[in-house]
Amino acid sequence: ARLQADAPRRARRDALAAELRDRAARLAAASAAQTRAEAAVAAALARAGVRDGEELATRRDAATRRQALARVVEERAALLAERAGWEGAAEEIAGADPDLLRGRLTALASEVEALEGDADAADNAARGDAAAVVALEAADEVPTLAGEWSALTAELEDAVRDWRLLAAAAGFVAEAVQEFERTRQPAVLREASRAFAGVTAGRYERITQDAGGAALTVVERGGLRKQAAGELSRGTTEQLYLAVRLGLAGELARRGTALPLIMDDVLVNFDPERAAAMAAVLGEAAAQHQVLFFTCHPGMRDLLVAGGQAARVVEL
Prior knowledge:
Radius of gyration: 45 Å
Strand content: 5-15%
Low-confidence stretches: none
Shape: rod-shaped
Helix content: over 70%
Mean pLDDT: 80
Largest sheet: 3 strands, antiparallel
Strand order of the largest sheet: 1-2-3
Number of strands: 5
Order of helices and strands: HHHHHHHHEEEHEHEH
Number of helices: 11
């Protein structure tokens, strides 16, 4: 119930965590975009043969002046010769069309301006994302939700530990029951056969079990054998297993303490005759065990009361 009550808080915490991851992803993407933009600017500047934007502006201004252009060409030719070992750069650039060089410089300047704009936008986005992350980290709900998460995690660990203990106990009980069924099979099946024969009006005389204890077989009055799994109706199968359970309970009582038997409308799939017969068998069992029978059917209540075993009705 507490986990359900705290579901909205966990949802808000999960939403905050998801938003934090989204902001972090956006920040990383913006940083990557900024890095790419800076690399693109650097590549554009490198393609233009300049070190920075100021030098590019100098070249652009020099494009309008023949003498300044010649000076810039000489400088860039020397730079190219130094960096790339390009012999004859000065002569080749000197022989190029000034208008072509001027147009190329203008195009490069426009490209640099566009890249600088992208870099500024990416930088602004990164600053905004960083501020949002800081705001989320400083939010009042984060410590509270973190504390609630720790408490819920501790409760879950306790529940898991309890479940493991109960699962181990259930396994030990199941092993004990299997061992009991294996070692006490003859007495249990005799008791179960007697009850099953009474419920089925003598149609099935005996219950047997294979050597491995995995399958039950019923023997009809004429000797015909039927497997409990697949060859009996649902109602007959339930009557068979209820008889076996009563036989186990009786054997346990003879070896130790008679424990209460708790049943929840176990006769609903029986026809009226077999239901009445099983009610009589339960009445006999009630002489040895306390039988608690839960039902929501008035007819079933009357059937058990009519068995003459001093049944007491408790309305819930």
